[in-house]
Design goal:
The chain contains 8 helices and 3 strands; from the N terminus they run H-H-H-H-H-H-H-E-E-E-H. With 201 residues, it is mostly helical. The protein has a 3-stranded antiparallel β-sheet with strand order 2-1-3, with no helix packed on it. Helix 1 packs antiparallel against helix 7, helix 3 packs across helix 4 and helix 5 packs across helix 6. The longest helix is centred in the middle third of the chain and has 33 residues.
Length: 201
């Protein structure tokens, strides 16, 4: 959760500068005049580096290791995409003369947004898994632990694991069914909440 917040806040100025310039061209010209194009690029470089070296480091360590083993997986896509955008931007920032004329663009926002979106997706996935796990655990608490088996001398409570095929099980009104079976005698309401999720029979 903390990494998601950091990865979302740090690139925000980069995103505003780059996307704001596309929406309102005058905005970019005003920023360049107020702070200078060089200063904006250096600030963007520092913020992007902080994202990739901080919250995004996990993708580079696992992803590059997977590439080195020649067994690429999902983590390998992040360093490839974000690394390419960042590396090109670094060349554009510090050595623009190595690029063809007019091609010294920067893509720091792309590099950081990739990391932010992947982290956000994983955080949402972990939350969903946690909720599903909690729901399953709560369902397991609904399961009956013992069964009342009719035997010689009267009914006796035994663990559900001890019930065998052919045993007669007594279930009183309102109780949970401890095992699968067929009704042989009597009629009543049955608590089906473990199957249906409904709180009433």
């Amino acid at each position: 959760g903390r990494d998601v917040v950091i990865a979302a806040l740090l690139p925000l100025p980069i995103f505003v500068v780059e996307m704001g310039g596309h929406v309102w061209p005058d905005f970019h010209h005003w920023l360049a005049g107020a702070f200078g194009e060089r200063a904006i690029r250096l600030a963007s470089f520092a913020l992007a580096l902080a994202v990739l070296a901080g919250p995004g480091r996990r993708f580079f360590t696992t992803g590059l290791a997977a590439l080195a083993r020649r067994a690429p997986e999902m983590n390998a896509l992040v360093p490839l995409g974000a690394g390419a955008a960042f590396s090109y931007s670094v060349v554009s920032t510090f050595a623009p003369g190595l690029l063809p004329a007019g091609q010294d663009h920067v893509y720091y926002e792309a590099a950081t947004v990739i990391v932010t979106l992947i982290l956000l997706g994983r955080w949402l996935e972990d939350r969903a898994k946690g909720r599903a796990g909690a729901a399953i655990r709560s369902l397991l608490t609904l399961q009956a632990k013992t069964a009342r088996v009719l035997a010689v001398g009267g009914p006796r409570d035994v663990p559900v694991e001890a019930v065998r095929v052919g045993d007669l099980v007594l279930v009183r009104p309102g109780e949970r069914l401890p095992v699968d079976g067929e009704g042989t005698e009597g009629a009543s309401h049955v608590d089906e909440s473990m199957l249906t999720g409904e709180p009433v029979p």
